[in-house]
TrEMBL record:
This is ABC transporter ATP-binding protein. PROSITE patterns: ABC_TRANSPORTER_1, ABC_TRANSPORTER_2. GO terms for molecular function: ATP binding; ATP hydrolysis activity; branched-chain amino acid transmembrane transporter activity. PANTHER family: ABC TRANSPORTER ATP-BINDING PROTEIN, HIGH-AFFINITY BRANCHED-CHAIN AMINO ACID TRANSPORT ATP-BINDING PROTEIN LIVF. Belongs to the ABC transporter superfamily.
Length: 248
């Protein structure tokens, strides 16, 4: 990047390709994530959003450039990419169900000085449930454990995959609120199907279709373009700003 131009992104993906079971699921994907705020990774079911996230951290075979804070990391194993400052919150939450909330959090502590106070402030409910087996938590509470684990460490970026999936509207609002708070301290690449949450949180949007990037730009501009959202997501967003609580 030429000095004096746009600030360096925290994450730069270029020409990313990935295959699962012989099928190309990520095809020549290029985009950047800025150093602040939330960037939404959008698209219909099965277009490769989760695969893109997994490819970034090397959980599936891939080729292409993955640059974190100016450093190429695509040749590194997953654990080193994570250690270099990537917090991953997977779609299925992956809490240790037979361990308590406190144990789940302790296991995630990577830094010498984990940010326990921040986590306690953001998740008072988890503090109250620290002795409860994580497997007995509700879906929303498990999502909070998963987010809390990523926030305990100081990361350069969080990759958060469908955090509101399957949650009741009230809990969706709580998760969205937590993500907004988290985004004050760390940039987030967010896979999210709930467009009202995207509208509330995201500054930028990257839209995938058939494993390829088909649109990038300002998230609100995208969501306000009904024709574009119809074409790329198959949903109308026309009524979204007026219908509080409407699921899209
Ligand atoms: N383990 C797997 N085995 C075979 N095919 C897979 C596997 N995982 C994903 N795929 C396929 O890869 C493609 C991309 O899937 P991916 O989960 O990345 O999409 P997505 O955009 O995240 O979808 P969703 O919004 O439904 O979660 C899909 O066609 C999916 O069927």
């Amino acid at each position: 990047m030429t000095p004096g131009t746009a600030p360096r992104p925290i994450l730069r993906i270029e020409g990313l390709n990935a295959h699962i079971a012989g099928q190309q699921v990520v095809e020549d994907v290029s985009f950047t994530v800025p150093t602040t705020g939330i960037t939404a990774l959008l698209g219909r079911n099965g277009v490769g959003k989760t695969s893109t996230i997994k490819a970034i951290i090397g959980l599936i075979d891939r080729s292409g450039v993955v640059e974190l804070d100016g450093v190429r990391v695509e040749k590194e194993p997953t654990y080193k990419i994570i250690r270099s400052g990537v917090g991953y919150v997977p779609e299925d939450r992956e809490v240790f169900s037979k361990l308590t909330v406190a144990e789940n959090l302790r296991l995630a502590e990577r830094d010498a000085a984990p940010r326990r106070q921040l986590v306690e402030e953001l998740f008072p409910d988890l503090l109250a449930r620290s002795g409860q087996m994580a497997g007995t938590l509700s879906g929303g509470q498990q999502q909070m454990v998963s987010l809390a684990r990523a926030l305990l460490n100081t990361n350069k970026i969080l990759l958060v995959d469908e955090p509101t999936k399957g949650l009741a509207p009230k809990i969706v609002a709580e998760v969205a609120e937590t993500l907004a708070e988290a985004a004050k301290t760390v940039p987030i690449l967010l896979v999210e199907q709930n467009l009202q949450v995207v509208r509330q949180l995201a500054a930028g949007a990257v839209v995938l279709s058939g494993g390829r990037v088909v649109h990038t730009g300002n998230a609100l501009d995208f969501l306000n373009d009904d024709g574009l959202t119809q074409r790329l997501l198959g949903v109308s967003t026309e009524t979204a700003p007026h219908e509080k609580g409407a699921a899209l």
